[in-house]
C-alpha cells in the first residue's frame, strides 16, 4: 500500500495557515516519509490529479469561481479538513458581510467592475461537507500535526474546545485581566494557541474564535462588557476581526459601535 | 481563455509562489505581442475595512494580509500611525523592532531560497523531491528557516502573525539573559547562511539583465525598518512623499494594482534594488560573502537574486547577533502614542521590497482612510517587461521548456501574490 496522499488548497487567505505546514521544520521531512504531499502548490510544482486521502483547505469562498473549485476539491478528497479562521469562519475578509461590498471595492479599486467578487465571504462548510475544522488565525503547528497524526492512525483528533483561560493556567501566566485590568477575550475564546497573548502581557484577541463551551459558541459578550471594561464600540471592534461571523452572535451592537462615527 | 486555432500551451499551475496568478503570453511569428501576469488572488479589501478602526489596530489587522511577511506589515503600519500621532520610536525599542525584522528576513528568504527557488536551478519540482538527492542542503535550509522563526517566536510570540507588536513598541520586552540561547541559534544560522551563499554561487545562471530603475530604502545601515526612499537615478524622498512619486493604476487583468513613477517609468524594488543601492552598508562578513559569490557593485540579473537573498540572510543573522550583543532593555515596553487628527506614512523593506502604508486619523483617533502599497504591485510592471524580453529571446525553445523558464523567471521575484495577488496558469499562445 502506498503512503496516504495529502493535498493543500488555497482560497481567499494570507497563506499563513498552509505556511504552518512548512514551518514544521523538524517534522517536515519525516512527515513526507509518512504522507505523500501530492498537491501543494506553495511547496511543489509536481501536482497529481488526485483523488487525495486528505485535503487541507485554507481560505474562504469569495468569488464565483471559488464555488466551482471547492466542489471539485470535495469531489477529489476522501477527507476534507479546513485550516484556519478564513476557512472555518470566513476570516477577516468576512467583514464585507456587514458592509456594502461594492462600496468596499470602490475604496480599493478605481474600476471595481473589473473585480469579480461575492457579496459575502463564507466558510468552506457553507458549501460542502467538512470532516474536521481546525481553528486559529493562524492555526497552531502542534494542532496541525495532531490532526495529521490522527488521520494516519484513523482516530479522532485530540483538539480541545475549552477556553484560553485553561491554557493560561497550564502555562502559569499571570492573569492580565485580574492583575492589570487588561481586557482579555480568553474566557470566551477557544484554546489551541497555548495562551500566547497573556504570556506576552496582553489580552487575548480571539483569533481562535468563540469557545463552544460557551452556549454553543455564542458567548454573552454583552453580559461580559462591564467585566471587560470596554466601551461597546471597543468590544464590537475587538470581536469584529478574524472570526467576525463566529463571534457576531454575541457581538454587542450592530454597525460599527457606539463610539464610532455614525 | 480563448485558444481558438492558435497553438497554445497551458501549464496547469505555476507553483512555489505565494498567492494566485496566471501568465499569458501571446506570440505571433517572431514577435511577442502580449505578456500579461494576471493576478487573480481574490481581493480582501483591507484598506476598506480599516476605516473606523482605532489607531492601535493596524498592526494586528494588516499582519493578516500576508502570512509570509507579517512583520513587514506590522512595522510599516506602526511607523505610519506613529508618524500621524507625532511620536518617534527609537533607541532600544527601535533596535528590538529591527531585531524582529531580521527574524522575518531570515525565515522568509530561507523559505524562498530553499523551498521555492533552488529546486528550479537543480531541476526538481520542489524541496521534498530535492531532499531525496540533496538532503543535507534541504536540512540546512530548514534549520535556517527555523532560526528565523525562533527569533520571531521569541520576540513576537509566534512566527505567523506575531502578537507582541504594538503601536509605540512592544507588549513585553525581553531581559538580556533571555536572549543568550537565541544568540547561539543565530551563530549557527550565520554559518548556515554563509554555506548557503557558497552553495547557490555554484548554480548556473542564465544571462539576463534588466534595465529598470531600482528603488529601495536607504539609511545609515543596510535598509530594513526605516530610511528614506532612494532611486537609482538620484531621486530621494521621505515616506511622506511616496504618493507624490508613485502612482498605482488598475489594469483589467489583475486584482493587484500596477505602480509606476508619476513621471512615467517602471521601477524595481526588492533584494536586487536593496543590494545595488546599499552594498556598502552590508556588514563586513556579508560583503565578503557577496564578493566571494561574484556579486559586483550592482546586480541586475534577476536569476541571481537567490544569491542576493543568501547574502541578505548572512547580513540579517550577523546584524541580529550585533543587536543582541548591544541590547540594553528599554525603560518601558512601549512609548505612549496618544491619537490625534492627522496623516502618517510608513515605509519599510519587506523581504520582497518596499511596503508603504498611509493612515488618515480623525480627531477621535479612528482611521478615516488607509492606503497600502505592497511590493508585488510595485514590481508587477517590471516583471511583465522582463518576461516580454525573456520570452522574445527564447522563442526557439519548445513550449515545455519555455514554460519552465518563464515559471523560473517569475519565481526570481518571489512575487508574494497573496499580498496583492499561488497558482499561476501559464498560457502561451502562438500563431
Ligand atoms: S486564518 Fe489567518 S493565518 Fe490562516 S489564512 Fe486566514 S488570515 Fe491567514
Ligand atoms: S489572561 Fe485572559 S486568558 Fe488568561 S486567565 Fe486571564 S482572562 Fe483568561
Structure, explained:
The complex is a heterodimer of chains A (about 260) and B (about 425). Chain A has about 260 residues and is of the alpha/beta class. Chain A has two domains: about 5-150, NADH:ubiquinone oxidoreductase-like, 20kDa subunit (Rossmann fold), CATH 3.40.50; about 165-250, no CATH class. In chain A, about 35% of the residues lie in helices and about 10% in strands. Chain A has twelve helices and five strands. Chain A has a five-stranded parallel sheet, sandwiched between helices. In chain A, α3 links the parallel β3 (about 50-60) and β4. The longest helix of chain A has 13 residues, at about 140-155. Chain A is globular. Chain A starts with a strand and ends in a 14-residue tail after the last helix. Residues about 250-260 of chain A have low confidence and may be disordered. Chain B is globular, with a radius of gyration of 21 Å. In chain B, a hairpin with a 5-residue loop joins β13 and β14 (about 365-375). Chain B is an alpha+beta fold and about 425 residues long. In chain B, the strands form five sheets. In chain B, strands 1-15-2-3 form a four-stranded mixed sheet, with helices on one face. Helices cover about 40% and strands about 20% of the residues of chain B. Chain B has helices at about 45-50, 60-65, 70-85, 90-120, 125-135, 135-155, 180-200, 240-245, 270-280, 285-290, 305-325, 375-390, 400-410, and strands spanning about 5-10, 20-30, 30-40, 165, 170, 215-220, 230, 235, 245-250, 260, 265-270, 340-350, 355-360, 365-375, 425-430. Chain B has a single domain (about 45-400), classed as Cytochrome-c3 Hydrogenase, chain B. Chain B has 13 helices and 15 strands. The longest helix of chain B has about 30 residues, at about 90-120. At the A-B interface, α1, α2, α5 and α9 of A face α1, α4, α5 and α6 of B.
Amino acid at each position: 500500500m502506498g503512503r496516504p496522499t495529502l493535498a493543500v488548497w488555497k482560497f481567499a487567505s494570507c497563506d499563513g495557515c498552509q505556511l504552518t505546514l512548512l514551518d514544521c521544520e523538524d517534522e517536515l521531512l519525516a512527515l513526507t516519509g509518512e504522507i505523500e504531499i501530492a498537491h501543494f502548490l506553495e511547496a511543489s510544482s509536481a501536482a497529481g490529479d488526485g483523488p487525495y486521502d486528505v485535503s487541507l483547505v485554507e481560505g474562504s469562498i469569495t468569488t464565483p469561481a471559488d464555488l466551482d473549485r471547492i466542489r471539485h476539491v470535495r469531489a477529489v478528497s476522501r477527507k476534507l479538513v479546513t485550516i484556519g479562521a478564513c476557512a472555518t469562519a470566513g476570516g477577516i475578509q468576512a467583514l464585507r458581510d456587514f458592509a456594502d461590498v461594492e462600496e468596499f471595492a470602490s475604496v480599493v479599486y478605481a474600476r471595481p467592475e473589473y473585480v469579480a467578487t461575492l457579496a459575502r465571504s463564507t466558510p468552506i462548510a457553507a458549501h460542502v461537507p467538512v470532516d474536521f475544522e481546525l481553528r486559529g488565525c493562524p492555526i497552531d503547528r502542534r494542532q496541525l500535526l495532531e490532526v495529521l497524526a490522527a488521520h494516519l492512525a484513523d482516530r479522532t483528533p485530540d483538539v480541545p474546545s475549552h477556553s484560553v483561560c485553561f491554557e493560561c493556567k497550564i502555562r502559569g501566566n499571570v492573569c492580565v485581566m485580574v492583575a492589570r485590568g487588561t481586557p482579555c477575550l480568553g474566557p470566551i475564546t477557544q484554546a489551541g494557541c497555548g495562551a500566547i497573548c497573556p504570556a506576552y502581557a496582553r489580552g487575548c484577541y480571539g483569533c481562535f474564535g468563540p469557545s463552544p463551551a460557551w452556549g454553543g459558541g455564542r458567548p454573552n459578550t454583552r453580559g461580559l462588557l462591564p467585566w471587560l471594561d470596554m466601551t461597546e464600540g471597543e468590544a464590537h471592534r475587538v470581536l469584529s476581526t478574524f472570526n467576525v461571523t463566529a463571534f457576531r452572535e454575541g457581538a454587542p451592537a450592530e454597525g460599527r459601535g457606539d463610539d464610532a462615527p455614525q | 481563455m480563448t485558444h481558438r486555432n492558435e497553438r497554445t500551451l497551458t501549464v496547469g499551475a505555476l507553483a512555489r509562489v505565494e498567492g494566485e496568478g496566471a501568465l499569458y503570453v501571446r506570440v505571433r511569428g517572431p514577435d511577442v505581442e502580449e505578456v500579461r501576469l494576471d493576478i487573480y488572488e481574490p481581493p480582501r479589501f483591507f484598506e476598506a475595512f480599516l476605516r473606523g478602526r482605532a489607531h492601535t489596530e493596524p498592526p494586528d489587522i494588516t499582519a493578516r494580509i500576508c502570512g509570509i511577511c507579517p512583520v513587514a506589515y506590522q512595522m510599516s503600519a506602526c511607523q505610519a500611525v506613529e508618524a500621524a500621532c507625532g511620536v518617534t520610536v527609537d533607541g532600544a525599542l527601535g533596535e528590538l523592532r529591527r531585531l524582529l525584522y531580521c527574524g522575518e528576513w531570515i525565515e522568509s528568504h530561507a523559505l524562498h531560497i530553499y523551498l521555492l527557488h533552488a529546486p528550479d536551478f537543480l531541476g526538481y519540482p520542489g524541496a521534498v523531491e530535492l531532499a531525496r538527492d540533496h538532503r543535507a542542503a534541504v536540512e540546512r535550509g530548514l534549520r535556517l528557516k527555523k532560526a528565523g522563526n525562533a527569533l520571531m517566536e521569541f520576540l513576537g510570540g509566534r512566527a505567523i502573525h506575531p502578537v507582541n507588536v504594538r503601536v509605540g513598541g512592544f507588549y513585553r520586552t525581553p531581559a538580556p539573559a533571555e536572549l543568550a540561547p537565541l544568540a547561539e541559534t543565530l551563530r549557527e544560522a550565520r554559518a548556515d547562511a554563509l554555506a548557503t551563499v557558497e552553495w547557490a554561487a555554484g548554480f548556473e545562471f542564465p544571462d539576463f539583465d534588466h534595465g529598470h530603475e531600482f528603488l529601495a530604502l536607504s539609511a545609515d545601515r543596510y535598509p530594513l525598518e526605516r530610511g528614506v526612499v532612494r532611486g537609482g537615478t538620484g531621486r530621494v524622498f521621505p515616506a511622506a512623499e511616496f504618493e507624490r512619486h508613485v502612482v498605482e493604476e488598475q489594469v483589467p487583468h489583475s486584482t493587484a494594482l500596477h505602480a509606476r513613477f508619476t513621471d512615467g517609468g517602471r521601477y524595481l524594488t526588492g533584494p536586487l534594488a536593496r543590494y545595488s543601492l546599499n552594498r556598502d552598508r552590508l556588514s563586513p562578513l556579508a560583503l565578503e560573502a557577496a564578493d566571494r559569490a561574484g556579486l559586483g557593485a550592482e546586480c541586475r540579473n534577476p536569476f541571481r537574486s537567490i544569491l542576493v537573498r543568501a547574502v541578505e540572510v548572512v547580513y540579517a543573522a550577523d546584524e541580529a547577533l550585533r543587536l543582541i550583543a548591544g541590547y540594553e532593555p528599554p525603560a518601558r515596553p512601549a512609548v505612549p502614542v496618544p491619537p490625534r487628527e492627522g496623516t502618517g506614512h510608513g515605509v519599510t523593506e519587506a523581504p520582497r521590497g518596499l511596503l508603504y502604508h498611509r493612515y488618515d486619523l480623525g480627531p477621535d483617533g479612528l482611521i478615516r482612510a488607509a492606503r497600502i502599497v505592497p511590493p508585488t504591485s510595485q514590481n508587477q510592471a517590471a516583471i511583465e517587461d522582463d518576461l516580454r524580453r525573456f520570452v522574445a529571446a527564447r522563442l526557439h525553445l519548445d513550449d515545455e521548456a519555455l514554460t519552465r523558464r518563464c515559471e523560473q523567471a517569475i519565481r526570481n521575484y518571489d512575487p508574494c501574490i497573496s499580498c496583492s495577488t499561488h497558482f499561476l496558469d501559464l498560457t502561451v499562445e502562438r500563431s
